Amino acid sequence: MELACAPMDAFEEGSAPLAETDRTRLRRMPERRSLDRSDLIAILDAGFICHLGMVVDGLPTVLPTTYGRAGDELFVHGSVASRSLRGAREAPPVCVTVTHVDGIVLARSVFEHSMNYRSVMVFGVPEIVSGEEKLEALRVLTEHVVPGQWQYARRPTSQEVAQTTVLRLPLDEVSVKIRAGAPEDGDGPDAGLDVWAGDVPLRVAALAPVRDPTLRSGVELAPHLEAYATGMAARLEPYAR
Ligand SMILES: Cc1cc2nc3c(=O)[nH]c(=O)nc-3n(C[C@H](O)[C@H](O)[C@H](O)COP(=O)(O)OP(=O)(O)OC[C@H]3O[C@@H](n4cnc5c(N)ncnc54)[C@H](O)[C@@H]3O)c2cc1C
User: Structural domain boundaries of the chain?
Assistant: First the structure.
């Protein structure tokens, strides 16, 4: 099954490291930063849920939502009635985060406990997607979550498209932070304590699809959906560093 959500393009093929800005420069634990474009792409393509943060009516608001990536752009969508997305139509600056929790790090001391993770932060001002590009953005979003589904399921009608807000955010100002491995107190003064230390790996898994009880008889699971669990396992496997 094809897992890449978009064909290889100049953004993916580009070897230039990610550019840092004053806003994206990691101050805390800068050794966990990655400027490697392939890390950014691997993290974004391994997930499909982001947190979209922006100020709505004067209040900080963080909206968990689905995203898709194509080239150097992220797409998020929602109902035109969504208050937060309505706020985003006024083009405020936003911050989008994508996080994969790969494990819990158990140190000898509580102070040194940590998480293994891969995370991305994207800053920018989103644009509303309209016209023909909107349908393509909806395809990208659909295929990012379930590859093969755009071809398979009924496509949105123009009325349904009109009821959907789609935002595009360029991947121009991004940061990538990754922690992997053991706790960090193995060579410190606590190393001699009789306290178990290590890490508990965590994974997201797709289980066998569950049939809708109202599904017409004779409608069988499509091959791309049968393959979904296997595909997801590969997709969600922590990025090997
Ligand atoms: C699952 C998970 C759990 C975490 N738990 C904790 C915790 O309990 N306590 C804690 O202090 N920190 C935790 N972190 C790390 C946290 O996300 C921040 O990196 C850290 O708190 C430093 O924040 P800061 O504002 O001082 O960062 P700074 O280094 O000052 O941030 C500067 C810039 O670095 C970039 N940046 C910072 N953090 C991240 C990130 N995680 N991913 C991508 N870019 C980033 C952003 O562009 C940001 O604007 C956790 C991270 C994850 C993913």
Answer: 10-236
